[in-house]
Amino acid sequence: MSQPDQIDLTAEEKSYLQALIDAKKVSPRVSDRAKILLLRSEGVSPSEIRRKLHMLSKPVRLCLDKFKEGGLMRALQDDQRSGHPKEISEEAMQWIVQTAKKSPRTLGYEQDLWSIALLHQYVQQHAKEAGFPRLERITSPTVSRIVNQADRQSLKLKRTRKLNGFDLINCTEVLIYCRPYPRYENGSDDVRIIGCDVVTAEIFASEPNSNIQVSCIQFLEMLDGKYPESYTLRIVDDDCRVFESPEIQLYIWGKRKGRFEVYRLPTDGEYTKRLVNRDVPFAPKR
């Protein structure tokens, strides 16, 4: 007899959760929630789940409650937090944006573009005289968030930051790690492409399909519709050889030229070659 709060998952949902657990780039919070749901579907009690995963009882119960309220995706995703009442006024935020529109050179610095660190320093030092004493305690991430919400094209900001060696230009270059996951069920050999935005940890998954090219096109269209048209989508290919197929190359370099860049993870042999000859780069697929 099933327990009152035991959850039922389809075979496809279980396969999806296992893929999240196995993916290396998935947020630990998402991976833990996937484990909670899988264990509970197998009849493991919440207290035993807590012991197995070395977690507090509150996140375990919260995950299960969210599943009952809204299903699988509701349980995996973070809730939108209301946060504290707004402490920084609209006028103060507008002053930060207007400052970012000026060249630092006009304010006594020896450079033409702001870095977030320099802008943060300037805001803290001049907040009181500008009439915004609260900004003396502002954090660098808050300054970054405020300018990111503005029209960055008009701001005098440095345009490049790094993430694991990749340039993220104006924060409009998205890095997606992806790989295929076969689904063997009832004689089916369907494959789905699952990817993860390595900055936000958001998960994307195509529908299972016996034709991996169809599944890949759906995955690319999903990404294409998710991000603004001005973004460049950089895909790190972990064993998705489908990206080398003529159909996918035609889509990437024909129909959506300039929208996607595909990089492949090197094989063990390529790692060795790079260690021996450091001048050999891993070039993106073209």
How would you summarize the topology of this molecule?
Blueprint: H1 11-22, H2 28-41, H3 46-53, H4 57-70, H5 72-76, H6 90-100, H7 116-126, H8 140-148, E1 160-163, E2 166-169, E3 173-185, E4 188-197, E5 203-205, H9 212-226, E6 232-237, H10 246-255, E7 260-264, H11 268-276
Parallel strand pairs: 3-6, 6-7
Antiparallel strand pairs: 1-2, 3-4, 4-5
Helix pairs in contact: 1-2, 2-4
Give an overview of the whole structure:
By secondary structure, the protein is of the alpha/beta class. It folds into 3 domains: 11-76; 90-157; 169-276, Nucleotidyltransferase, domain 5, CATH 3.30.420.10. The chain contains 11 helices and 7 strands. It has helices spanning 11-22, 28-41, 46-53, 57-70, 72-76, 90-100, 116-126, 140-148, 212-226, 246-255, 268-276, and strands spanning 160-163, 166-169, 173-185, 188-197, 203-205, 232-237, 260-264. The longest helix is centred in the C-terminal third of the chain and has 15 residues, at 212-226. It is flat, with a radius of gyration of 23 Å. The chain starts with 10 loop residues before the first helix and ends in a 10-residue tail after the last helix.
At the fold tier of CATH, the topology name of the largest domain is: Nucleotidyltransferase, domain 5
Corresponding CATH superfamily of the largest domain: Ribonuclease H-like superfamily/Ribonuclease H
Task: Report the portion of residues in β strands.
Answer: 15-25%
| Gyration radius from CA atoms, angstroms | 23 Å
**Which word captures the global form?**
flat
Name the poorly predicted regions. Answer: 159-172, 271-286
Mean pLDDT: 76
The number of domains = 3
Please work out how many helical segments DSSP would assign: 11
Q: Quick one: CATH class of the largest domain?
A: Alpha Beta
Share of helical residues:
40-55%
Report strand order across the widest sheet: 5-4-3-6-7
Strand and helix order: HHHHHHHHEEEEEHEHEH
Number of DSSP strands? 7
Q: Examine the secondary-structure arrangement and name the CATH architecture of the largest domain.
A: 2-Layer Sandwich
- From the N-terminal CA to the C-terminal CA, the straight-line distance is 57 Å
Pfam families: HTH_32
Protein name: Helix-turn-helix domain-containing protein
Organism: Candidatus Avoscillospira stercoripullorum
InterPro entries: Homeodomain-like_sf
